[in-house]
Amino acid sequence: MKKKVLAVLLGGCMVAGLAAGCGSNDGGNTADSGDSGDGGSSYHFEVVVKSFQSTYWQAAIQGIDAAVEELGVTVNTTGPNAESDIADQVNMLNNAISQNPDGIALAANDQSAVLDSLQDALDAEIPVVCFDTGVPDAPEGSVIATIATDNESAGAVAAENMYEVIKDTIANATEQVRIGEVNQDATSANISGRGMGFINKMKELIEADGKTVAVIGNQFYVDQVENNGDEGSADVIIEVAVPAQTTVELSATEASNIMTKEDTIAIFGSNQVTAEGVLTANQNLSVLAATPDEGIVGVGFDAGATLKAAVADGTLIGAVTQAPVDQGNLAIKALYDYCEGKEVSDIATDSYWYDAENMEDADIAPNLYD
Amino acid sequence: MANRTASKTAGTNKSFIDRMGGQKFIVLIIVIVMFIFFCAMSPQFRKYTTVVSILDYSYYIALMAIGVTFPLLTAGVDLSIGTGLICYSLIGGYLVVHQGWPVAAGMLVTVLMGVIFGVINGCLVALMDLPAFLATLCTCMITRGFGALVVGGYGIPWPTATAPGGWFRSIFKIKIADQNIPIGFLWIILLVIVMSFVLNHTKMGRYTRAIGSNKEATRLSGVNVKFYHVMAYVICGLFAGLAAIAYSAIFATVQPGSGAGFELDAIGGAIVGGTSMTGAVGSITGTLVGVFVICLLKTGLPFIGLTANWQQIITGLVLIAAVLFDILKRKKEGN
What we know:
The structure holds two protein chains of two kinds. Chain A is an alpha/beta fold. Chain A has eleven helices and 13 strands.
């Protein structure tokens, strides 16, 4: 008997816990903010982000909140648990459409999965602004503007800044040298865009100085390289690695493999997870340094407390950050302008190089989320 | 089941392999062969730092696997350990980083959270008779959401090795004369010895196996089945909590939303090490050896230049081979 009572009590606790969890979950997942309440001019927008569980999106939401306060609109923000929860996000987008808002801001996790929903939005005459990631095949007229990082140029920014530090070593090298790149995947447009942006820019810079380059490693990236050199005879090897799963540990293993090769002079982790992978590998290897003479030059991408600390103390020579705050902000402003009858157009937001010197600057610091 | 146990104990004409511990012994040989193979294939793999890295990345999987062996022995499973690990670490880390708690207190909370979710899992499975797969799948989702909720979506950087409070990272790795010494491995060995003793020489262990073998018969023989069944999940939760400490100590940042899939490495390791998914059969030492098969594959395959897709295919094939071997051996014993 006692046990039954205990079981019932525990069951009750669980249910209560679940209810409490769900309740506060609503609070966490839907950030209702701002309410001007003056009728006519106040618009309501629905925002669907890629995921709530990443700091990057928290920064985007900061920008959204700032726009809400400035424009006196109301916004409801939703997003799935993880960026891989594609079906969940499509559901959320459909729900957003059925609310019949004045506009929708969308950061699509999958460019093809949202196409039907975008058609529905178009039929319901709801304007959609895509931010962070564009939807290239969207039905004509459904997406009024796309606000996204130019990932190719973001990758190129990393290559240019890395090349500054390693160019003398490449010029004076008598034997083959190696540059590593760790990309989280070979499927998403953002990652492959900046991965290729880095490779192409680095190849261009090295070849402009009269050296030859061969890109090896992951087939997806290698296949996209034009006029690839011969691995045996090239002066510089760019080795591209992609982990089997997107964990820090597997990124670190891929990074270790490159960083333990004698001829490696530099390495680039093209997002937060892979950049942290490079740092994790370095815990055991201790090879990262400010110049190729002392060790391996490391460059990261995005921010987060760990990456920021590594840039600040010089473990990484620097990193590239996108502008999530701007993107969230501009997405809401574009919707507002559209509702006010103004012209809106696509915006390519900047990506910034940051290092120990400039990370406190006013135009950099807000985009360096923890 | 009786057949199986009988042939194990009665064997007057045991083969050399069986005397050495059966499947465990073969898996241990596989680990050694794999290690030699990777060393031969890759000059980078042969380095001391690589060995330290393999050990670094094995601790949290090994700890989860030791724990999950207990629910597996009861013919259950715990799928919540992976996301749970991240959840416990996020909550403990949140208290340290954002609330100024001492690191030791944060660690204690981390382990305690594991125990609490172990109790919840145990109650759901043993007292309320939910299928273990379903119950722990639900707590898997709950821990994933709960962890992210507490930290508000932000990653948690536990103190770095050089920062104040960074001492806890030296539980698993110390630096002597510029060399990293992976002392965490000692703790793993110690815990394997302790838990092997618990499994083989205490009531807790014997009843855990008995529940997996025949729960009703165990109950009828007067054992407090419910208590011991719950305890199997509590032990699993405790080790998930310890795994959370290991994960926090090795990796710089704990990201909310991650962790799904960790449990499969741990469960896979236990199965490769000879633990049966139908319960009762298995050992802690086998689990440890099995974990190293998984960890060696994860680390070694990238080093011999195989790309992501091949890594997954080969890992899958190796697991099939290991489980198939187990089934064939049991069939042979059954005859």
